[in-house]
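Deviations from the work plan: none for this task. Representative record:
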Amino acid sequence: MMRSAPVQAVWRPGFTRAIVGGALGFAIGGGAMAVLGVLGVGVKPGHILGVGYLGTLFGFLLGIGAFRFWLTWMIGREIDADEEHESHGKAGDWKRYFRFTTDHKVIGVQYLVTAFLLFFTAGMAAMFMRFELAQPGVATDKDLYNIIMSTHGAMMITVALISVIGGLGNYLVPIMVGTRDMAFPKANALSYWLLPIPLLFVAINPLLGGFDSGWTAYPPLSQQANLGQQAYLMAFVTIGASSILSAVNFLVTVFRMRAPGMSLMRMPIFVWALTVTATLVLIATSVVAGAMTMLLFDRLIGTSFFRVKGGGDVILFQHLFWFYSHPAVYIMAVPGLGAILEIVPVFARKPLFAYPLAVFSFIAIGVLSFMVWAHHMFVSGMATFFHIPIMFTTELISVPTGLVFFSAIGTLWMGRIRFKVPMLWVYGFLWAFVIGGITGVFLADVPTDITLSDSYFVVAHFHYTIIGSTIYGLFAGTYFWFPKITGRMYSERLGRLHFWWFTIAFNLTFLPMFWLGIQGMRRRVADYPADLGGVNLFVSIMAVNIALSVAVFAFNMIRSWRGKRVAMADNPWDAQTLEWICTSPPPIENFAHIPTVTSAPYEYGTPPMSAPPVPAGGRPQP
Amino acid sequence: MTSDVTASHGTLGHVEEDPAEARDRMLLGVKLGIVSEVMLFGALFAAYFVVRSESPDWPPGGELERPELLLPGLNTLLLVSSSVTMQLAIWATRASDRARMMRWLYSTIVLGGIFLLIQMYEFATNGFGLADGVFGSTFYTLTGFHGAHVLVGLLLIAIVTNRARRGYVSADRETALESVSYYWHFVDVVWLFLFSTLYVL
């Protein structure tokens, strides 16, 4: 019997079935709890939301077809190899981006587009905040401001966590190490499709009453706040599960699937950065997932982990939270640093300066990042004997970070630099991240931190570090690999316009915030002393300029991607890493034959590959 | 090997896919997943030790009774034995002894099942609940998380046992069985820590 097209769409695994499944899941899960409530079991609205959320998540995943191969395997049948192979999708078919497609390049683009959509949404939230802060006094509503501020933070954190590693990393790492896909392609697709439902719940949280705790969700506020808070906590745990799955995938791919000859010290530095990042994700994320789960239990089933009345400890939450969330700063920053270091040699036409030291620095950053978390808590009332050791380790971590800098600057030194758009973003990174790093010293030192804590100085500092590393790295990488991903070239002029407009507006937005913070302007509140009004108006105007410059970026990307394919070399930058030997975009499964690697990745300005490999720095091998 | 590549640090060659490599990848993936699970229990244990160290006596207030050691002690024996039977099943698989493999797999399921039943009985008869302050919170959350892991482990073993029954598990096709055994041993080790801290210490 032939079914009509809409019926077929609901029947087959795919996006339509996923939406139907998600809605059904919510109805079943939430409905069951509601019925229990009617029957007299003590059901709170939070229980309905919680079970409804789980129903939505599983309904959506079942609908998209995430479990279909595993379920077949579980009931003791053989998986249809042809069907499994087909889940790679066909090249050039746009529908595969809305399916459970296992091709890592599709997943990379899914992550990247999701991250940019989220970036634009959270940017709009920032515009609302700057509208409120443009004048002293309260123009809109204090609670609404807190909700929008929290949503902005939660979304931007997600952007920083998934954009470079999920987007560029998924797309590039298998190609860069010379293999056909990630180690576990189905788990890779699952880690992407775990994201839409939690992101949806974060986006609609104002409808559930919103959450006003900021992304840090400290109890006791987060224990008392309404359902929007709970939606955020559940979303946080789900996104954490997705990152852990993805981290396992990255690590197995890098350590088990490199092409012959690709020794660890021949890996592109971007792959090294993502390897360190994935290790941090793997080790740290389940700690915060545990903390968030305890918080949910406190809210929903009456436990007392963070309730003083029952013997619990509020500071305990902050420790568990920052044990993840400080490494998370490096989970956000290191992929960006990796993208920057990847781009510098290509445009300076020199081998990466001190490559082994850069690798060592990433590893050292990773190790040290677990020893510094309590510098977020100098004013929390934690044990004071902890202040000085944490201050010391925090200062120490600036050493490996500085080495990454030297690696970039040493590569530029005496290079034949081509000032293309990706390279401009590298310079923007050098400027912004230095400011972020140096102002960090004042927040690492206990006496100055106690003064500056919770002021706009902190806001300016972390925007300089996270935008400086992640977002500059993301833009640099997106421009650099855009021709690889799309097979088309963007407009150089619009790219330059985007860079200069963004960079000037970004600096004029956040530099004055350091001063505002020193003047005593508090973060996370809708109002401030009236005499700071002039500077805040200026900051608000500049913030709008950031949004406008990002609109130029979006226009450039969409127009160039949709536009006619211009004749373009597969390797427009004359880069040497493995992704550039593929066509642009690379075919399904990347390589007809797995390449054999014979030298280090950045042999620019050294004799051709037939000659014996010359290590970075030009010393002949003994 | 001739190079037909102009823009890379590689030349083209060819490698075949190898089932041993696929197995190697899977087992590494499982081990890494367990690392992340260890950190999850690490967070729970950290919470437990922090709230316990902040309380002058344990259980706080002196009204609640700690559970008896008899049933949990029996449970410890059961779970450790199930780890042993799991490993015996793997050795039987490697020796291509199908009957023994099935026998040990069934024994593992039975032992794990009894563990869960005893655990549920204990939960029902304990004189304190989840909402009784940090003592109840930590006790039930830690043992509950572990119990959920036992349940998942049992389901996985049941799935693999069913596949073994259908003839899909053999000496050269035992990656799934071995992965599940890693998980099962991990669950066992977590219990040893739980038993020695929540019950004994």
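Chain B touches chain A through 52 residues (CB under 8 Å).
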